[in-house]
Amino acid sequence: MPEIFQKCPYPENITMSNLVYFWWAPTLVYQPAYPRTEKIRWIFVAKRLGEVFCLSVFIWFASAQYAAPVLLNSLDKIASLDITNIMERLMKLSTISLVIWLAGFFALFQSFLNALAEVMRFGDRSFYDDWWNSPSLGTYWRTWNKPVSQYFRRHIYSPMVGRGWSPFVASVAVFFLSAVLHEVLVGVPTHNIIELGVAFLGMLLQLPLIAITTPLEKMKTPTGRMIGNCIFWISFTILGQPFAALMYFYAWQAKYGSVSRQMALTTPGTL
């Protein structure tokens, strides 16, 4: 048993306070005890919360000022299947999409989780690694969101491998569940769950990308890792988030927005 667990061995950990601490601690994997800091640095907490506020305002401004106009100007291009202009819109959206995502990533993983960890005196502050240097898609998914990655490894991947399933089947199970959760996360707010399925399919497509980039990561020369990192960034900044944003925005507009009203006006018998 690790030395830290001896501070709160079973069944002493079966208490309401222990459960409540786990609920609020910035981790998804339960342990009887966690590394703890000695005191709360309230100035540190205030700085991190200030960062969250400023970045939230920036995300709102960037979304309203830059992302929304690009999305709105893409509706007619998608409706007419103008591939050239769709690609141009996609490239333009990729820039602001990346900026907004990076701001959101910093606000959540660097600022908010560190503030929460400080208030909870939670000692393990390893919420992410240098995912931007990922030489493969597999490395990216293991390093950009370590609390979720550790949860899937502890509760799905490792138990399946331990019961005789192959690592590949365990990985498929992890990404399938992750795909379902991504589809729910995006599809419910846009009222397009399941029927569009871009988030779901996008997560499942990570498996072949992982298969392609993993051998590049294992190459002894830096060239392979560089190519793998380029594949990651291309799939991340162009083929991933911007494309999904365009599709879900268009689908929502087709149901409830301007595209829906235009379709109603042009459909015989609706006037």
Automatic annotation (TrEMBL):
UniProt membrane topology term: Multi-pass membrane protein
UniProt-listed Enzyme Commission number(s): 2.3.1.20
Keywords, in A-Z order: Acyltransferase, Endoplasmic reticulum, Membrane, Transferase, Transmembrane, Transmembrane helix
Protein location: Endoplasmic reticulum membrane
Pfam families assigned: MBOAT
Membrane-spanning segments: 49-68, 98-117, 160-181, 193-214, 226-251
GO biological process: triglyceride biosynthetic process
Superkingdom: Eukaryota
GO cellular component: endoplasmic reticulum membrane
Hydrolase keyword on record: no
Sample GO molecular function, one term: diacylglycerol O-acyltransferase activity
Pathway noted in the entry: Lipid metabolism
EC category name: transferase
Keyword Transmembrane: yes
Family: Belongs to the membrane-bound acyltransferase family. Sterol o-acyltransferase subfamily.
Role: Sterol O-acyltransferase that catalyzes the formation of stery esters.
PANTHER family in UniProt: DIACYLGLYCEROL O-ACYLTRANSFERASE 1 (PTHR10408:SF7), STEROL O-ACYLTRANSFERASE (PTHR10408)
Protein name: diacylglycerol O-acyltransferase
Organism of origin: Verticillium alfalfae (strain VaMs.102 / ATCC MYA-4576 / FGSC 10136) (Verticillium wilt of alfalfa)
